[in-house]
Amino acid sequence: MEIFGIILFIVLITAVAATVSALLKDGRGHNPPIQSTEPWSAFDAPSTPYWNPRIY
User: Fold this and answer.
1) For position 51, what pLDDT does the model report?
2) Sequence-separated (6 or more) residues with CB below 8 Å from residue 46
3) What distances in angstroms separate CA 39 from CA 22, 23, 42, 56, one per listed residue?
4) pTM: predicted TM-score of the whole model, two decimal places
5) Mind giving me the DSSP string for 1-56?
6) Residue 48 CB partners (closer than 8 Å, separation 6+)
7) Which of 11, 46, 21 is nearest to 54 (CA)?
8) What is the pLDDT of residues 14-52, one digit of tens each?
9) b/e per residue, 6-22, with b = 16+ CB within 10 A?
């Protein structure tokens, strides 16, 4: 039973180390900045709130 605890501990330590490593490297890669070139639209969203009753 102890072997499962040791394996679980090693997996958890590896996952935490990978998460910390990914968080530290985030934003330092070659990702281009996001630029919005097209105007924003809500497509066919209603112009009234959803809680208002609608007449079909």
Assistant:
1) 63
2) 54
3) 33, 32, 10, 30
4) 0.46
5) -HHHHHHHHHHHHHHHHHHHHHHHHTT-SSPPPP---S----TT--SS-TTS----
6) 54
7) 46
8) 999 999 888 887 766 566 777 777 777 666 666 656 665
9) eeeeeeeeeeeeeeeee
Structure tokens at 41: 């639209």
Task: Please tell me the distance from the alpha carbon of residue 54 to that of residue 56, in angstroms, as a whole number.
Answer: 6
In Å, what is the CA distance from 44 to each residue of 19, 41, 47, 48? Answer: 39, 9, 9, 12
- Residue 39 has which token pair? 């105007």
Amino acid at 39: P
